[in-house]
Design brief:
By secondary structure, the protein is an alpha/beta fold. It has a single domain (8-342), classed as L-arginine/glycine Amidinotransferase, Chain A. 25% of the residues lie in helices and 22% in strands. It has 9 helices and 18 strands. It has a 4-stranded mixed β-sheet with strand order 3-2-1-18. Strands 4-5-6 form a 3-stranded mixed β-sheet, with helices on one face. Strands 7-8-9 form a 3-stranded mixed β-sheet, sandwiched between helices. Strand 16 (292-297), helix 9 (302-313) and strand 17 (318-323) form a beta-alpha-beta unit. The longest helix is centred in the first third of the chain and has 15 residues, at 26-40. It is globular, with a radius of gyration of 19 Å. The termini are close together.
């Protein structure tokens, strides 16, 4: 599995239509998507899944009004339950024996984070994308012949054989994805299907995370040996102890070659609440595209700090803040709604 900063052929997203994900805040979401598409299409193709004809027409109109519709944007009719393509979409890999000329789609089972009943259409998304692209597909199974559940937001890789994940998401008995699988069995699956030699287990995710511990809200590889990690300095904040522990684990961890990692602290925004509920707002939920890095912002004093840190890390890319104060009410941000398709020949 290549790293996110390696060249993309395209980014896949799904056009928003499930109003219950943003009760009382749905209307602004389409314009957030238009902004995402506008910036992505400057550097790579954007592939958009539209639930049906009416949603496709709506998407075209919104994109046209936002000056975001171009030849780099393509729409496909594809039934979806929701729009969190990072988790319901495929994970693309290069085969070990032929990485320069072939792309393979890994199709993991999706069950809506072992929490929601509406997942059946989303579970078919990887197979539909496979047919659109005419790619070969691999479905990962456990030793017990169970189709393995894995969401893209629960892992992050450095493209050299090291993977980040959390115990809260993959090993907890709450929202349990694969109850029959142990830590060692999961590591074996990562090795077999994603080419992973070293798995680094962090502890817990952030407060308000509906997925129960996705790593893309707390720690991300930005180079093969560098991890940016969410850091909370307020000892009275609920996130302080778990984020402190994750930093400590990363400081003790090594990569696939046994070398220590470089750790860069990324601040957290001030707590974001809506209707009395704390939301999983984090700058770590950024998306690395070909010529840009899209970063969630929250009209917070730390917006500028986070953008400056990432701009230093990615000097060759435009680091762009996109306001996600409304989007986060759906319990996800920019990384959650995107899935990269690597470029063949980039390995």
């Amino acid at each position: 599995m290549p790293a996110e900063w390696e060249p993309h052929e395209a980014t896949w997203i799904a056009w928003p239509h499930h109003r219950d994900d943003w009760p009382g805040k749905f209307e602004p979401i389409r314009w957030v998507y238009a902004e995402i598409v506008r910036h992505l299409a400057r550097h790579e193709r954007v592939e958009i899944l539209a639930k049906g004809k009416a949603i496709e027409e709506q998407a075209r109109q919104v994109l046209q009004d936002a000056n975001a519709l171009s030849d780099a944007v393509r729409l496909y009719r594809c039934p979806t339950d929701r729009v969190w393509t990072r988790d319901s979409g495929p994970i693309f890999v290069f085969p070990e024996d032929n990485p320069e000329s072939k792309l393979v789609l890994t199709n993991w089972r999706f069950n809506a984070w072992a929490k929601y009943p509406n997942w059946q259409k989303d579970n078919e998304v990887p197979a539909r994308i496979r047919r659109f692209l005419k790619l070969s597909e691999v479905r990962p199974y456990s030793a017990a012949q169970e189709w393995i559940v894995l969401e893209g937001g629960s892992i992050d890789v450095n493209g050299r054989g090291t993977l980040l994940t959390t115990e809260e998401c993959l090993l907890s008995s709450e929202q349990q994805r694969n109850p029959e699988m142990t830590r060692e069995e999961l590591e074996s699956v990562f090795a077999r299907y994603l080419g992973i030699q070293k798995t680094i287990w962090l502890g817990q995710g952030i407060v308000g995370d509906d997925t129960h511990g996705h790593v893309d809200d707390i720690a991300r590889f930005v180079t093969p040996d560098t991890v940016v990690v969410a850091s909370e300095t307020d000892r009275n904040d609920e996130n302080y102890p778990m984020l402190r522990e994750n930093i400590e684990r990363l400081c003790e961890a090594t990569d696939q070659d046994g070398k220590p990692l470089r750790i860069v602290a990324l601040p957290m925004p001030s707590p974001v609440y809506f209707e009395g509920r704390r939301l999983p707002a984090s700058y770590a939920n950024f998306y690395i595209a070909n010529g840009s890095v899209l970063v969630p912002t929250f009209n917070d004093k730390n917006d500028r700090v986070a953008l400056n840190i990432l701009a230093e890390i990615f000097p060759g890319r435009d680091v762009i803040g996109i306001y996600c104060g409304d989007l986060i009410w759906g319990f996800g941000a920019l990384h959650c709604v995107t899935q990269q398709q690597p470029k063949i020949g980039s390995q």
